[in-house]
Amino acid sequence: MGRLKEYIPIVGRGVIDDLRALAERLKGKTVQHINSTAVGGGVAEILTRMVPLFQELNLNTRWDVIKGGDKFFEVTKKFHNALHGRSEEINEDDFAVFMETSINNMNEMQYSGDIVYVHDPQPIALVQKKSDNKWIWRCHVDVSVPDRVVWEFLYSFIARYDAAVFSSPEFSSKIPIRQFLISPSIDPLSDKNKELPEDVINMVLEKYHIKKDKPIITQISRFDRLKDPVGVIEAYQEVKKYIDCQLVLAGGGATDDPEGIKVYEETKEKAGNDKNIHILLMSQNDIEINALQRASTVIIQKSLKEGFGLTVAEALWKGKPVVASAVGGIPLQIKHKYSGLLCHSVEGATFALKQLLNSPAYAKKMGENGKEHIKNNFLITRHLKDYMLLFLSLYCKGDVVYL
Ligand code: UDP
Description:
Strand order of the largest sheet: 2-1-3-4-5-6
CATH class of the largest domain: Alpha Beta
Distance between the termini: 30 Å
Helix content: 40-55%
CATH architecture of the largest domain: 3-Layer(aba) Sandwich
Oligomer: single chain
Strand content: 15-25%
Number of domains: 2
Bound molecules: uridine-5'-diphosphate
CATH superfamily of the largest domain: Glycogen Phosphorylase B
Number of strands: 14
CATH topology of the largest domain: Rossmann fold
């Protein structure tokens, strides 16, 4: 694990000193994070790195994961899709399944935090255990145009929290509690993002039978329809008519996402027997993901909806030119034609891919600008600071902090 002082060469000593000063103000407080999966997806990715750093800052931090059966996660996946604007049939039984699992978790889990930090809709109902402590709801999903029925159901719980946190201004909505805008982050020292020797990158390519003889376009994502893997293949197939290239679609599942295998099958079918499409079903292996990103000529993230899109930040941090959909938190990371290219369709993605593949100097500049933008805005040190400022603000009345 990266120790705090190891971040100094990247972000400067002042940033780390600020973190220590803020943590000092919160001394004695306990923060409890709760989410629905220990591995897979962006939330687990961030908590894995953040919890030890908070502990190193002497801010007592723990992380608990709710338990749920297949039925529960099928329902929460439907909620997830509906919040993202997809039409889903959700009935009374689904809400009953959701509440039953929530009640089980309310009874089984210890709620010891002075601040309880609940991530996403799956554990949202636990707020019924709120006593005189502070509860925060952290929404990582794109709720710009949510399904009204699901949103109103969630709203009854959201209203009981002390504060809500969203990743992008467009996700904020009329709720009766304070709202904060805090973007997610990546950890430059994690296995996912650290520098890798060339031979490690080559070994990973060999393992997956990927040759370096033609440009590599890559999308790293869970196999989820909202990540549009089929759309990525369509864009690649168009590009391929003009530029000899290959496509890597790599991803694993998350324990709270039951649709992965189905979407993986759909993607395989779309790819047919094109030997230049590498569809890799990977277990959680950060070094391998890192290597694939670093080996790529261009990274694509053609999501239809996206909370933030950590994969975009990861790619930009590696100085890669990125083509990504202008959805959710992605435009916070990519300023069009400056730190990457935004797209709105398969055709747009095709055009942008061709442009980057045909102009290596332009692509290099996009990657360099992207890296600088991530360094200034989306590294974990900024995230730690924002979270501590948020915690302090919960104890503010007027100008006075009551800790
Ligand atoms: N990821 C991974 N293995 C995979 C697929 C994704 O480690 O097979 C990581 C990816 O590198 C990123 C996170 O999972 O760190 C996904 O976060 P993102 O915000 O892009 O999407 P989410 O899955 O949360 O919708």
